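General statements about sequence and structure are easier to judge against a single worked case. When preparing material for the folding task, we compiled for one chain both its residues and its backbone structure tokens. The amino acid sequence and the backbone structure tokens for this protein are reproduced below:
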Amino acid sequence: MLEQDAAGRGRAGAGAGKLPAHVTRLSTRDPDEHNAWLAARYPEHRRRVRPRARGFELATQYAARGALDVTEMRFTAATAYSELPPVSYVWASHAYSGGWLMRWHGREVRVGERGTLLMPPDGCALLNDCCWHTTVRVRLDVVLRVAREQTGLDPAQVRFTGVQPISAAAHRQWLATLEFARRGIYGRTLESPLVLAAAEEAVAASLLAVFPNTAMTTAVRTPRDPAVPAPVRRAMAFIDAHAADPITRTDIAAAARVLPPTLGPAFRRHRDTTPSAYVRRVRLHRAHRQLLAAQPGDGTTIATVAARCGFPDPYRFAAYYRQAYGRPPSQSLHS
């Protein structure tokens, strides 16, 4: 077996430097070795590889953090037939070359080069032909929680009804999500539990926005009794106390003793903002204090402060900061 270094060059596994614990790489011409590697990471996934005359080659890289994982895989001169039973996650793959033939609920779906395909959690069969692709996967419970927070829909009613993006714009959104997840999970961006939780929810929300599902066609349901200032105050107090934690809208609603769909209308009615905007405001304030408290030589950077305070993208953090404080974060650091 050969592992690969960061530049993609093959190297012998024996005596080589160790990869980070959450990243594994494999390069092989042995279908059985590939199947064993796959089974260790996707135990529900049953795959049969059929080499062609030129043989079988595989290069793959896998990384996992929390409820997210990313797999980059390149097949050369081979086909692989997969059977995927109902699983506890949702994933979507983008093909840079080759493609797939999916059989799902009596339908056949073909996706070729530069296409994207959802692997639904209720099971499918898949023919993978000489494909180079990247897959982003997130646990199903995260997707169901986000769907409930967005619409109030019972998790049992949430299901995907299609496996391709609903539009070209939606496809571009998923490609941006894929790149965000890939960069974050292979780097150090998602080491913070706060940032990781935000990334998990962002991927889940993107899946729900890009691929056809029942949450798209469900009107947001607001309880008959609208929230009153007391629940909003409880929610704000909870956010103030737990802004450093990976809190969700469900967590905030539970603290406020209301249903999640109530939060948005209540915040807009009584505070002229949204729960997410208020969370961002509190976290920006925390970041502002950390920037002002930093001392020269203590190693504090804008990127590290942004990540600690729940902003995985330092450029977006800088835009939020300038909007809130009228100056870039660089002017507050060591000021």
